[in-house]
């Protein structure tokens, strides 16, 4: 509850700042629009009467002008002409300008026609021509940056003017690459760096001009068209701050790869990419002990189940870097398995197997034949609302499938077995969470039988198939609404690459029988996440894209836990991993439960099965001891 309150307080505290920033950013454009309306209507009036405007028309014009200004400003706001990054405006934005000008002009013309004959209004020709001139003026203001930017690029050989954030090693490498390769199309015009000792210094005649707080002013003064973040170790918070400054300055932010993406410590201008949501939420440096990971993978036979999924395929990629003797990729989905096979085509020792962990006999034969030494079990059904409706599928894959694989691993003499688990297994409130909790019990129940068994538990991974972020992007692409279940809902997020790095590290640390939980950082409010994603696409939340609160779905928690208070926490030797020892499952009681579950799953009675599954965490499945036998 304290964590939920903290998220809510932080969200409420940010609102006044955002509103003030919104007003501050739009005031100059509103004043310019106001300045456009006066000459737009005054000039046609003066021309209409050859410079000698009758007194009554002057009097009417003084009454008409404030109304015209108010109508244009209100309609401009209604059609989204404020709060946009006009430097990158396209046909869609031009259409908005036309529609806003046409709507305001139509309203004023209609009012003028209705008042004709009673109040001796402004001549109709003046209103029509004035609305047209105002429309042209609004468009010129908004698209002048595009025109000037084009002129600047032409003058500099089609090179966009770039301000580099970070005058360190990566910034120096990027700068030299840009200067040596004009064909890349980027012209560095300066650095910003928060180290005051670098202020005024120059790298290759490109000077450090200020700190990141100076970005908006420098963009305006230097005609900057892109800002480049050249700090590979930058945290999500730092990137978020720079992104906000770039949004204020109406300029695009691009980034160099993060530390974990850089190969050999070298970064080049060809690595520059657009900003991603992963950079804002999950870009933390992970310190891993590569030698301990190499010790369990180098020259070993490795099996990955669920290898076509987001987590399984990333495990396969990272395991390959440690040169296993063989890598077997197992999945029941033909398309996903083909995709990962195609991606890893040509890698030595990679083999794919189309099979289902629910097939007990097939899995046993495969493991006896392949003799894997290390198994990463990532195969699972994971979508909470779907599995609430289809509990049989959840039980057959997440529970029975895990039991099949564990039994086969014991029979085949596997040395190390790692279950990929989830924070939803902690005090589960859903069918999916309970099945993953039960999978943890199965894995821990067999520790001590010649194999090091452990479970690695973490929360949401950014961009995984079917997760909230791709869902939000699809909703944004369709024009909304973006659906959020609860304004207070928060989740832990981590990038796929970081999560898998820590999974491999946890596997190397495991002594058997533990649950290893990855440090997921601070929880992210889902409503705020939706707003960030909308702004990342250049739109304005609740104006361009509606955010709709739809209510919590069955089985969802407002806030997830990572470690159960009843679990005994132990130091892991790694700052990003927590080790805990849940109560040891009683093997005979667990096996009886599995038989009952399998029978219920075969009965076709989903309602009874769901009730049985939800009641399982309260049943006695554990022995008195806490340490694994």
Describe the structure.
- With 629 residues, the protein is an alpha/beta fold.
- The strands form five sheets. A nine-stranded mixed sheet has the order 10-9-8-11-12-13-18-22-21, with helices on both faces. A seven-stranded mixed sheet has the order 3-4-2-1-5-6-7, with helices on both faces. Strands 14-17 form a two-stranded parallel ribbon.
- Helix 1 packs across helix 4 and helix 14 crosses helix 19 (587-603).
- The protein starts with a helix and ends in a 14-residue tail after the last helix.
Brief write-up:
The chain is of the alpha/beta class. It has 20 helices and 22 strands.
Globally, the shape reads: elongated
Main beta-sheet strand count, sense and barrel state = 9 strands, mixed
Unreliable residue runs: 10-15, 148-156, 623-629
**Sheet/helix structural class:** alpha/beta
Q: Estimate percent helicity.
A: 40-55%
- Rg over CA atoms, rounded to whole Å, is 31 Å
Q: Roughly how many Å apart are the termini?
A: 36 Å
How many helical elements?
Answer: 20
> Going across the major beta sheet, what is the strand order?
10-9-8-11-12-13-18-22-21
Mean pLDDT: 81
Strand content: 5-15%
Tally of extended strands?
A: 22
Helix-strand blueprint:
Elements: H1 2-48, H2 55-78, H3 91-115, H4 124-155, E1 160-165, H5 169-180, E2 186-192, E3 202-203, E4 206-210, H6 215-222, E5 226-229, H7 236-249, E6 252-255, E7 273-274, H8 277-281, H9 290-297, E8 301-305, H10 310-320, E9 326-331, H11 334-343, E10 350-354, H12 360-370, E11 374-377, H13 384-389, H14 391-412, E12 416-422, H15 431-445, E13 452-458, E14 460-462, H16 468-477, E15 482-484, E16 490-491, E17 493-495, H17 496-509, E18 515-518, E19 524-525, H18 526-536, E20 547-549, E21 568-570, E22 577-581, H19 587-603, H20 606-615
Parallel strand pairs: 1-2, 1-5, 2-4, 5-6, 8-9, 8-11, 9-10, 11-12, 12-13, 13-18, 14-17, 15-20
Antiparallel strand pairs: 3-4, 6-7, 16-19, 18-22, 21-22
């Amino acid at each position: 509850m304290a964590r939920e309150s903290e998220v809510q307080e932080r969200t409420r505290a940010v609102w006044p700042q955002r509103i003030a920033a919104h007003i501050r950013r739009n005031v100059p454009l509103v004043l310019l629009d106001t300045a456009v309306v006066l000459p737009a209507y005054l000039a046609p009036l003066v021309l209409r009467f050859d410079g000698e405007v009758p007194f009554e028309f002057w009097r009417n014009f003084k009454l008409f002008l404030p109304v015209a200004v108010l109508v244009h400003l209100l309609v401009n706001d209604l059609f989204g002409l404020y709060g946009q990054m006009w430097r990158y405006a396209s046909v869609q934005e031009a259409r908005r300008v036309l529609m806003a000008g046409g709507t305001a002009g139509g309203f004023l013309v209609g009012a003028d026609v209705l008042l004709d004959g009673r109040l001796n209004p402004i001549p109709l020709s003046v209103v029509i021509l004035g609305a047209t001139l105002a429309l042209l003026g609004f468009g010129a203001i908004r698209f002048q940056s595009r025109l000037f930017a084009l002129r600047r690029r032409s003058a500099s050989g089609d090179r966009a003017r770039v301000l580099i954030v970070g005058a360190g090693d990566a910034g120096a490498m990027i700068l030299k690459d840009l200067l040596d390769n004009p064909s890349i199309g980027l012209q560095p015009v300066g650095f910003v760096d928060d180290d005051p000792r670098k202020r005024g210094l120059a790298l290759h005649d490109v000077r450090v001009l200020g700190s990141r707080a100076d970005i908006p002013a420098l963009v305006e003064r230097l005609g900057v068209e892109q800002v480049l973040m050249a700090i590979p170790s930058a945290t999500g918070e730092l990137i978020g701050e720079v992104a906000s400054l770039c949004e204020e300055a109406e300029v695009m932010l691009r980034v160099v790869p993060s530390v974990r993406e850089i190969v050999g410590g070298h970064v080049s201008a060809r690595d520059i990419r657009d900003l991603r949501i992963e950079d804002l939420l999950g870009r933390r440096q992970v310190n891993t002990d590569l030698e301990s990971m190499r010790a369990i993978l180098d020259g070993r036979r490795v099996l990955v189940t669920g290898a076509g999924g987001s987590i399984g395929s990333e495990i396969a990629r990272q395991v390959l870097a440690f040169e296993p003797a063989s890598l077997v990729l197992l999945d029941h989905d033909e398309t996903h398995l083909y995709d990962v096979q195609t991606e890893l085509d040509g890698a030595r020792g990679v083999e794919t197997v189309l099979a289902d962990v629910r097939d007990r006999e097939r899995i046993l034969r495969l493991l006896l034949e392949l003799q894997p030494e290390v198994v990463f079990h990532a195969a699972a059904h994971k979508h909470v609302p779907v599995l609430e409706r289809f509990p049989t599928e959840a039980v057959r894959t997440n529970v029975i499938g895990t039991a099949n694989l564990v039994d086969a691993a014991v029979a085949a003499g596997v040395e190390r077995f790692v279950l990929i688990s989830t924070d939803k297994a902690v005090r589960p409130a859903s069918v999916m969470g309970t099945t993953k909790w039960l999978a943890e019990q199965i894995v821990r129940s067999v520790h001590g039988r010649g194999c090091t068994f452990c479970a690695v538990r973490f929360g949401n991974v950014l961009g995984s198939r079917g997760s909230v972020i791709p869902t939000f992007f699809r909703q944004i692409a369709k024009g909304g609404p973006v659906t959020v279940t609860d304004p207070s809902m928060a989740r832990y997020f981590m990038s796929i690459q970081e999560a898998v790095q820590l999974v491999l590290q946890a596997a190397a640390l495991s002594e058997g029988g533990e649950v290893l939980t990855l440090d997921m950082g601070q929880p992210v409010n889902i409503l705020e996440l939706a707003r960030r994603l909308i702004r990342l696409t250049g739109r304005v939340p609740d104006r361009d894209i509606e955010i709709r609160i739809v209510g919590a779905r069955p089985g969802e928690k407002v806030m997830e836990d990572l470690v159960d208070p009843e679990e005994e926490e132990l130091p892991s030797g790694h700052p990003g991993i927590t080790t805990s020892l849940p109560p040891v499952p009683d093997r005979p009681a667990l096996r009886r439960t599995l038989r009952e579950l399998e029978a219920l799953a075969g009965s076709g009675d989903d309602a009874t099965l769901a009730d049985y599954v939800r009641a399982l965490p309260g049943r006695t499945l554990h022995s008195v001891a806490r340490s694994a036998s």
